[in-house]
Write a structure and sequence with these properties.
632 residues; two-stranded antiparallel ribbon; two-stranded antiparallel sheet; binds zinc ion; membrane; Serine Threonine Protein Phosphatase 5, Tetratricopeptide repeat; transferase; 6 strands; mainly alpha; 50% helix; ANK repeat
Length: 632
């Protein structure tokens, strides 16, 4: 890819500070710079620079031409810290473009790591513009003076040594103080490196800074805005999610009284709004800015009707649940219990009612006074009664079971990569454990963060909005069962469906046979012995049973067949419906590919016999081969 002139880089970089929200909430969008450097990859490493003449130290740094760089500095050693015509230094150019070798060389030749340009930005600010994690690490290690690992940092890993393990570095306290000064150094508008990373939506930089260097995620700029304000305002959902997961303050107000939710609402960023609401910004829906406006009012003013509607319905449901919990009367308790069970009582009544109806209208009706069931009929009747009853036991188990709720302790106990070495600040934020340190996050799998449960979900888990918790192998929430169908109760659910299908088919068949045998008794005035439609009204209850039975059979059997076919393919309803959202369900060609499908026989066996057993080895290897690291 052709690289544009260095001058174009200067424009994109200076746009970092030009992209602040306006001081007034009226016209925030007018100052938003849409041509952010984050989307401009023309100057990324590895580009073709055949058409660029490296004729000064700045270009040599920006393009990482180490030979030329050495040549220039050898000739004029003082040039290492001299700014170009716009006031930017060689180290800034090298850091912007993640030129690890060039940055290392410049530092070794005396380049000042904390020198600021006329906007107050240092080379560290510039690393956050294009997520240049390699040079970020070089800079901070240089400040901490802990040196580089043998052989230098590997620029392809972007994390240097120990890439992916996410351990915080052991840095002596006095060195850490110097690092903290640089991390907290604000530019002319008070933006720290964490602000810049959030402004460009680089979740990997935010994570790296927080976990490895214990950077403050709630730092304030000159308008009292936190990185979360910025990520929400810009609509960067991954960064918003990550900051909330790292326990950033969701309801912090800036100088205008605006919370992150205000800014996301002003911009109409519906995904950011939803993420904030799920991640603890509930109080912000009532918060008023200096003009007295709530996020909902601002969204409506700006014409973001969808956002205003979402906020209004969230507010309503919050108020409803508050009302219910505050008036804890007996009636409310019953209502809450019924709400939890959803339609489950209806299904119980339906099944018991159908069995009763079956016994009275098919098996033991006065209509069949002269038509005994016979052995076949008796067996069929017992099958119907037996299957329905045992089915109800499995329904009960499905409703009352833990469907596979994810617990924080489980997630971390099962992860061999967990370190208890998380930085002290992070430990304090997360209640004493380094639970935010997760290999999936070092690989950039932000979609696995649950901001509500504050955990990194196992691969096939999903957050259930009804139960408010993450569920392993989430299939769907079934209102008829009154529970989520997940890893630990799907087998019971399918057995229930199968037993009920058997009962419904058998009762339907028997009812049809009985209908055919509705013939007048011998000696009847109508002339016994032959079937006549005229007799149907007398068999009305039998006909009604048949219709009801058939309708229920259609829906239950369909669900049963769908579920069994999914088990044969080792896929969940949720995965099929939302496959586009899951990276692990995409093959190298970008099409749907299920890495868990081991063939129908093996799938069914695993499901029926080893359903609670994890098989981390094959799955991990399959999945990691299809998921490239995003931080690279
Ligand atoms: Zn959750």
């Amino acid at each position: 890819m052709a690289i544009e002139s260095v001058a174009s880089l200067q424009t994109t970089v200076s746009s970092v500070s030009a992209s602040a929200p306006a001081a007034s909430t009226d016209e925030p969008a007018s100052t938003v710079n849409t041509s952010s450097a984050a989307t401009d990859d023309t100057a990324m490493p590895g580009g073709d620079r055949a058409d660029v003449v490296i004729d000064d130290i700045f270009k040599a740094s920006a393009y990482g031409d180490l030979d030329k760089l050495k040549e220039f500095i050898e000739r004029t050693p003082s040039a290492v810290n001299q700014p170009d015509a716009q006031g930017y230094r060689p180290l800034q150019w090298a850091c912007l473009n993640n030129r690890v070798a060039a940055a290392t060389y410049l530092l070794s030749r005396g380049a000042s790591a904390d020198a600021a340009d006329h906007t107050g930005q240092t080379a560290l600010h510039w690393t956050a513009v294009r997520a240049s994690v390699g040079t970020l690490e070089v800079l901070l290690r240089h400040i901490a003076d802990i040196g580089l690992p043998a052989g230098g940092l590997d620029p392809t890993s972007a994390l240097g040594d120990g890439a992916g393990d996410g351990a915080a570095l052991d840095v002596p306290a006095h060195s850490m103080a110097a690092v903290r000064r640089l991390l907290e150094l604000g530019d002319a508008r008070g933006y720290t490196v964490m602000h810049v990373a959030s402004q460009y939506g680089h979740a990997n930089v935010v994570y790296h800074l927080a976990m490895r260097w214990n950077a403050d995620i709630d730092g304030l700029d000159l308008d009292d805005r936190t990185p979360l304000h910025w990520a929400a305002y810009k609509g960067f959902v991954d960064a918003t999610k990550l900051l909330l997961f790292l326990n950033a303050s969701p309801n912090q107000k800036d100088k205008e009284g605006c919370t992150p939710l205000h800014w996301a609402s002003i911009r109409g960023n519906i995904e950011a709004v939803n993420t904030l609401l799920q991640g603890g910004a509930k109080d912000s829906i009532y918060a008023q800015d200096v003009t007295g406006s709530t996020p909902q009012q601002l969204a409506a003013e700006k014409g973001h009707r969808h956002v205003a509607g979402t906020l209004a319905s969230f507010r309503k449901s919050e108020e409803r649940s508050k009302r219910v919990s505050s008036s804890w009367s007996a009636w409310n308790r019953i209502v809450t219990a019924m709400q939890t069970l959803q339609m489950a009582p209806v299904i119980w009544m339906l099944i018991i009612g159908l069995v009763y109806f079956f016994l009275t209208s098919v098996v033991n009706s006065a209509l069949f006074l002269y038509h005994p069931l016979g052995l076949f009929g008796a067996i069929a009747s017992w099958i119907v009664v037996g299957s329905s009853s045992i089915g109800l036991i499995f329904l009960y188990r499905t409703t009352t079971a833990d469907p596979g709720f994810v617990r924080v302790a489980d997630v971390y106990a099962n992860s061999p990569h967990m370190r208890e070495k998380g930085s002290s600040g992070m430990r304090a934020r997360t209640g004493g454990s380094a639970t935010v340190n997760h290999p999936a996050l070092w690989s950039g799998e932000w979609e696995r963060i649950c901001v509500t449960c504050k955990l990194v979900r196992p691969l096939r888990a999903k957050h259930c909005k009804v139960t408010g918790r993450c569920v392993e192998h989430f299939d769907h929430f079934c209102p008829w069962v009154g529970n989520v169908i997940g890893r630990k109760n799907r087998r019971d659910f399918i057995i229930f469906l199968t037993l009920e299908t058997i009962a419904l088919v058998t009762s339907c068949g028997l009812a049809l046979l009985r209908l055919a045998s509705v013939v007048p008794a011998p000696g009847h005035p109508s002339g016994g012995g032959t079937f006549s439609l005229a007799r149907l009204p007398q068999a009305s209850s039998l006909v009604i049973f048949l219709v009801a039975d058939f309708v229920v059979l259609l829906s239950v059997a369909t669900l049963c067949i769908v579920q069994i076919s999914q088990v044969c393919r080792n896929v969940t309803t949720n995965e099929l419906a939302n496959s586009h959202r899951y990276r692990y369900l995409r093959g190298p060609d970008g099409l749907f590919h299920n890495p868990f499908d081991l063939g129908w026989y093996r799938n069914v066996w695993d499901f029926m016999v080893e359903t609670y057993e994890e098989q981390p080895q094959p799955l991990t290897s399959i999945v990691s081969s299809t998921m490239p690291k995003r931080v690279a």
